[in-house]
Amino acid sequence: MSTAAALLSLQGVSRSFGEREALRPLDLAVAPGERVALLGSNGSGKSTLLRIACGRDRPTTGTVTFDGAPMSEDDIRVRARVAVVGDALTSYPDLTVRQHLELVAVAHSVAEPEAGIAELLRAQSLSEHADAVPGTLSSGQTQAMLLASALLRPRDLLLLDEPEQRLDPRARDRLAELISAEGERGTAVLFATHHRELARTCAHRALLLDEGALAAEGTPAEVLATLDPLSGT
Ligand SMILES: Nc1ncnc2c1ncn2[C@@H]1O[C@H](COP(=O)(O)OP(=O)(O)OP(=O)(O)O)[C@@H](O)[C@H]1O
Predict the structure, then answer these.
(1) What's the pLDDT at 226?
(2) Residue of 52, 88, 67 lying closest to 209 (CA atoms)
(3) What is d(CA 105, CA 1) in angstroms, rounded to the nearest whole number?
(4) Which domains, and CATH codes, for the chain?
(5) Which atom of ligand 1 is nearest to the CA of 87?
(6) Do 14 and 60 form a contact (C-beta atoms < 8 A)?
(7) Which of 99, 166, 109, 103 is nearest to 131 (CA)?
(8) CA 180 to CA 226: how far, in whole Å?
(9) Tell me, what's the pLDDT at 67?
(10) What are the beta bridge partners of residue 189?
(11) 18 in contact with ligand 1, CB cutoff 6 A
(12) Do 36 and 30 form a contact (C-beta atoms < 8 A)?
């Protein structure tokens, strides 16, 4: 797609950690409503790319723009419009699931928060755990809470790092529907996944990273066809 129409644009972006080239120079543009899957084996650079894409980390070379302006996590526009489900648990241990969501609703001035929270708790099978603190949740329930937090707030760009992790098959199917619905409501979605079916069913486009380099790009079917069926990716 053309960079001009992109909401998120990475140009010549690379990231090195000392001698290690975690990400080799690549370009990526994601348009509103577009759903893009990042594939690649462990250590191929997916999380590195996502951290750079949300402004949490800076590239060694290249530029990242969000809606035409340099991407920075500290930018109030970015805070208001970019939702991230990453690998870090940003929860407060003493707040219940519901209180976490209430905090998100206040921080983002969510209209009619009670109805939105109730709906997300139901959709994420968390209603029975609304008054539980995160330390008592299973890992899948914790992941569901993180997803609910991202889906409660307004967003034009949604970045997800292996959102399927820890989810059971039913919750994973629900996640696939959620990602598809995000694109339909105009949100640009970039998600890293090890789950081929999630990429196949949800993404318009897929990128395959191999040792930090862009190894393939195309429709999910095209990219998945390049993978060794026996490989772990
Ligand atoms: N802070 C860091 N310091 C040094 N090396 C790092 C750092 N972060 C990532 N790396 C290295 O960069 C490479 C890419 O890591 P990254 O986490 O992006 O991979 P990934 O594709 O997300 O892997 P996984 O599927 O296992 O989550 C790895 O070799 C990793 O060791």
Answers:
(1) 92
(2) 52
(3) 34
(4) 3-90+155-225 (3.40.50.300)
(5) 27
(6) yes
(7) 99
(8) 24
(9) 92
(10) 35, 158
(11) no
(12) yes
